[in-house]
Amino acid sequence: MVSSRSADWTAGEVAISGGRLAYHRTGGHRPPLVLSHGLTDNGLCWTRVAEALAPDFDVIMLDARGHGASSRVGPGEVVDPIRDLAESVEALNLTRVLVMGHSVGARASAGFAAAFPKRVRALVLEDPPLVPPMTPDARERRLQTFREQVARFRSMTEAELRAFGMRQSPSWDPVEFPAWATSKRQVDAEALPLLNSAWQEDFRSLQSPTLLIHGESERGSMVAPEQAREALELNPNLRAVRIPGAGHNVRRENFADVLLAVRSFLAEV
């Protein structure tokens, strides 16, 4: 169901190297805030966040390559989400942009901010996977597992996916599941992105104010306490917030605390 607020949003696409990225945008003469989703999601998976922040920001929700309505990814193609994000921001003619990403989208956002520091006003990272780069063998195993996951998604109807999601994540607000279910049938089996750099390199290079939001590792967060401490030691521009009662999908598991942290941070930058 589309809310009265999101009914006024616009949709479009931007050209990038070898394809295009689709987006939804709240609009208005407000500071631009680009949202980069996680693996298997799409831009509209940010709907709840975008509706909350639209009164103060022009929120742009990108569909990553191989996700949503963006260009497809075929066998053997390499997905570089950092390049795609950079080219999208340039194509949209955005300057001094605010960027927020979740999971792989957070890693891509950090890589973009590290590579193009003058173009990023501030950065919010929701539970980025702070893991070492994969070896070629490990990547191939991960890709095969991902292909199998996508095949399972494709074998289910959207109604079945919604029911599955609600069983798997009963703490989420029901409004999360329509976009979540739709996105699972849109993702390509080859859409696993390539992130070769060590996360420490990107974090060390960040020049803009950065908020690292993470959950509890025992609930599935991909940011362990020692990694959060390491991140803080690497860069004085960074602050970290541990959200109680949440795992990897931090905003979906404790929306109120995440929104409070994000609003407080963005009000200062």
The CATH superfamily name is Alpha/Beta hydrolase fold, catalytic domain
Strand content: 15-25%
Largest sheet, in brief, is: 8 strands, mixed
Order of helices and strands: EEEHEHEHEHHHHEHEHH
Question: What coarse outline follows from CA principal-axis ratios?
Answer: globular
What order do the helices and strands come in, and which of them pair?
Layout: E1 10-16, E2 19-25, E3 32-36, H1 47-53, E4 58-62, H2 81-91, E5 97-102, H3 104-115, E6 120-126, H4 136-154, H5 158-168, H6 177-184, H7 199-205, E7 210-214, H8 225-234, E8 238-242, H9 250-253, H10 255-268
Helix pairs in contact: 2-3, 3-7, 5-6
Features:
about 270 residues; alpha/beta; Rossmann fold; eight-stranded mixed β-sheet; 10 helices; globular
How would you describe the overall organization of this protein?
The protein is an alpha/beta fold and 269 residues long. It has one domain (6-268): 3-Layer(aba) Sandwich (Rossmann fold). 38% of the residues lie in helices and 17% in strands. The protein has 10 helices and 8 strands. It has helices at residues 47-53, 81-91, 104-115, 136-154, 158-168, 177-184, 199-205, 225-234, 250-253, 255-268; strands spanning 10-16, 19-25, 32-36, 58-62, 97-102, 120-126, 210-214, 238-242. The model has no long low-confidence stretch (mean pLDDT 95).
In short:
The protein has helices spanning 47-53, 81-91, 104-115, 136-154, 158-168, 177-184, 199-205, 225-234, 250-253, 255-268; strands at 10-16, 19-25, 32-36, 58-62, 97-102, 120-126, 210-214, 238-242. With 269 residues, it is an alpha/beta fold.
